[in-house]
Amino acid sequence: MFEKSLENLKKNPPLVHHITNYVTVNDCANIVLAAGGSPLMADDYEEVEDIVAISSVLYINIGTLNKRTIESMIKAGKKANEKGIPVILDPVGVGASQLRNEAIRKLMENVQFSVIKGNMSEMKALYTHAKNTGGVDVQEEHMIHDHNLDENIEFVKGVARKFKCIIAITGVIDIISDGEKTCFVRNGHAMMAKITGTGCMTGSVIATFCASNKENYLEAAITAITAMGICGELAHEKVMARSEGSSSFRTYLIDAMSLMDLNKLKEGAKIEFK
Amino acid sequence: MFEKSLENLKKNPPLVHHITNYVTVNDCANIVLAAGGSPLMADDYEEVEDIVAISSVLYINIGTLNKRTIESMIKAGKKANEKGIPVILDPVGVGASQLRNEAIRKLMENVQFSVIKGNMSEMKALYTHAKNTGGVDVQEEHMIHDHNLDENIEFVKGVARKFKCIIAITGVIDIISDGEKTCFVRNGHAMMAKITGTGCMTGSVIATFCASNKENYLEAAITAITAMGICGELAHEKVMARSEGSSSFRTYLIDAMSLMDLNKLKEGAKIEFK
Amino acid sequence: MFEKSLENLKKNPPLVHHITNYVTVNDCANIVLAAGGSPLMADDYEEVEDIVAISSVLYINIGTLNKRTIESMIKAGKKANEKGIPVILDPVGVGASQLRNEAIRKLMENVQFSVIKGNMSEMKALYTHAKNTGGVDVQEEHMIHDHNLDENIEFVKGVARKFKCIIAITGVIDIISDGEKTCFVRNGHAMMAKITGTGCMTGSVIATFCASNKENYLEAAITAITAMGICGELAHEKVMARSEGSSSFRTYLIDAMSLMDLNKLKEGAKIEFK
Questions:
Q1: For chain A, is the Cβ count within 10 Å smaller at the N or the C terminus?
Q2: How many C-beta atoms surround the C-beta of residue B263 within 10 A?
Q3: Domain extents for chain A?
Q4: pLDDT digits (tens, 9 = 90+) for C106-161
Q5: Distance between CA C151 and CA C141 in Å, rounded?
Q6: Which of A20, A28, A41 to substitute to test the interface with C, most C CBs within 10 Å?
Q7: Between chain A and chain B, how many beta carbons pairs sit less than 8 Å apart?
Q8: H or E element: which one contains C273?
Q9: Which chain A residue has the Cα nearest residue C194?
């Protein structure tokens, strides 16, 4: 576990095309660089096909979508499918508005995704068209804990089978599944929810690892999510040691990604397969 | 003072809908999280009513407005008024362009605001349609000092009465008034003007406190502005102790908000009513 | 060298109008403030002329251009030419898409630039219409080293003469030329490529210095680029001393700009004229 994903990324640093929101886009760019990739943000309808053509992966995040960028997402997604590069989706806040639901419906119809990553409220909205009143955060009744882990694993497997892609649910316990094999990751720290962008950055890191690991998206996604979780733990330790707060935490989280290596991953990982 | 505002915020962490600029939006999201709220940024015309429907407050900031988002602001503002949640306005750079003046005129015509926050140049432009050549910064002749405090208080009271809302002017001395009761706050540090986003973040924190304190917007605004000022002082102390610069200051400012509590507020506050 | 540029900037802190990308715009705003200017971001077609009218310089960066903002860039550029203020161009990622090529072609046709700043891949694309597959990063075959320095100097001089403006190429060795006099700067650190925004921030600082130094754009650009390079070195030292990573580096880079002075510039500068 982990060796190959890391090694492939180091050997082939990917160009990571983002069509993403303007809230956390800077954090996304910096975490891609920290992880070893090269970020490229471009969302104009006239341009996205050219950018996909030189990129190794496409990451679509609907955080601050608008009518203009929805069309760009679909066009870019189709082109990426044609070219055979992975496409990662973060359906931020789906279920919270008609526009997001419609955008996601169109995206799912037109694009085959390699990995869909979100919190459990987003994934329920995606799968069952349930309303999502948590906005971009998970609703309390959807949080993953030990007592509801088994039913959640079954749910995630079902979603993965339906959409024929890796499903990655992030939360207190992360669940990643390809419909057959399922992994849960117990890394991370509650402070990750106290800054904006943790989820988006996780998507960017998944995209970065998938780009260089086309043979094994499941392992790529697990590596990315475990790495993010360990970064959160290391950042939290540093903040505590220095009596600092949430913004320092953000800095140390990205710092930790830029200093991540195989040893830290292997020693820090708290993962289990089911 | 302060107890109730803090307690209500802790009991009812609000969803804070922002329609704001792309320059400081990440700082706004992080300071809302640091203060105890949950930020949500959405600006598409087709989506803003749905997002208002699940939010506890609407914050409108025209920092990088464009024709597309002006219409969204008006639509969202009307819906928020209908729903009875507070609407906060930051008329960034009003007076600096025809487009901003027109946008603000339309907003004031169509939306009843709960709090309008800006620097003195912006407020003069808003009230008297004066030209504003300072861009997003206050012009020197409009700065609030002890020697012009009394006349400024009268001006602010007049504006508050005219627009039937709380007016909050931030500067070396902050003035907050509902038209009857007026408070001035002497917290803060000059270094707050050396980073971008201090003003926008203050607006976000006001929105966060107002959302959970619908009975008393004046106290909510005073609490938010005092908290920001104290954070500025704490951040400055840390920067000086560590011989760091403006970007570290930004980090420590948000850190301080994430560590704010009733004691720090009560001990640090330099406020006076008139 | 340096004294006059710094002194003029201190005497006349400029309003720096940016039409720039949403990825690094916050960093740009903060570095302008750190350098001693006042940033102002505005990109709506209806507004840009009014904003140019109150500004001291216009900085155009096509990082995340779209059809809406391309028209704004041209309109603002023309107005700035009319008014006689400097216009700085950062042709981010030109050569990577038809849209960027077209935008740059139109900009070059309609606007006289004072300084064009980019990496060598971008400048080759600009001059020879070569394809640029590096995205926003320099392609390896275009990197400037000692062994290809002479031919690169000749190339840059030619570009400067053709476009009748200062050309500034940033890289391991920076080359700045007005077509006659050429300077190369050996300041900086490899870690500057490990965060997003270094290039954009350099453009913002060039704009800030040019605004206050209309008599000598060449010296203004050299001062800005040397200052950025020294900030990169100081930030790297601090990161090493504290065992931190790339995000701390970004913080310390902006910190260093806010603490820059004539002594540090004079002592740290590694520049040579040819």
A1: C
A2: 9
A3: 3-273
A4: 999 999 999 999 999 999 999 887 777 777 778 888 888 888 888 899 999 999 99
A5: 13
A6: A41
A7: 96
A8: strand C271-273
A9: A33
CA distance A53 to A57: 10
Is B245's CB within 8 Å of C253's CB? no
Mean pLDDT of A225-243: 97
Q: Do the beta carbons of residue B270 and residue B252 sit within 8 Å? A: no
Burial class (CB in 10 A: 0-12, 13-18, 19+), C14: buried
Topology (CATH level 3) of domain C3-273: UDP-N-acetylmuramoyl-L-alanine:D-glutamate ligase (3.40.1190)
**Distance in angstroms (rounded) separating the CA atoms of residues C252 and C237:** 10
Alpha-carbon gap: C23 to the closest alpha carbon of chain A (Å): 5
Is there a contact between C247 and A254 if contact means CB atoms under 8 Å apart?
Answer: yes
* The one-letter amino acid at B223: T
Whether residue B136 lies within 8 A of chain A, CB to CB, comes out as no
- Chains in touch with B (≥3 Cβ pairs < 8 A): A, C
CA distance B22 to chain C (A): 6
How far is the alpha carbon of C30 from chain B, nearest alpha carbon, in Å?
A: 6
CA atoms within 13 A on the CB side of A262: 10
Rg of chain A, C-alpha, whole Å: 17
Q: Which two tokens stand for residue B188?
A: 């803060």
Sign of the four-CA dihedral C100, C101, C105, C106: negative
Give alpha helix (H) positions in C111-197: 120-128, 149-163
| Nearest Cα to Cα of residue A127 among A136, A118, A135 | A118
Residue in A29, A11, A31 with CA at minimum distance from that of residue A21: A29
pTM here is 0.97
Q: How far is CA A59 from the centre of its chain?
A: 9
Q: What is the pLDDT of residues C222-248, one digit of tens each?
A: 999 999 999 999 999 999 999 999 999
d(CA A20, CA A268): 30
Check CB contact of A247 with chain B, cutoff 8 Å. Answer: yes
Residue A146 main-chain phi, psi, to 5 deg: -60, -35
- Asked whether A118 and A104 are in contact (CB, 8 A), the reply is no
CA distance C258 to chain B (A): 6
Of A65, A135, A250, the CB nearest to B40: A135
ipTM: 0.96
Interchain contact, B258 vs A250, CB within 8 Å: no
Q: How far apart are CA A219 and CA A200, in angstroms?
A: 19
A258 to C96: CB separation less than 8 angstroms, yes or no: no
Sheet holding C166-169, edge to edge: C38-41, C15-19, C57-61, C87-90, C115-118, C166-169, C174-177, C182-185, C271-273
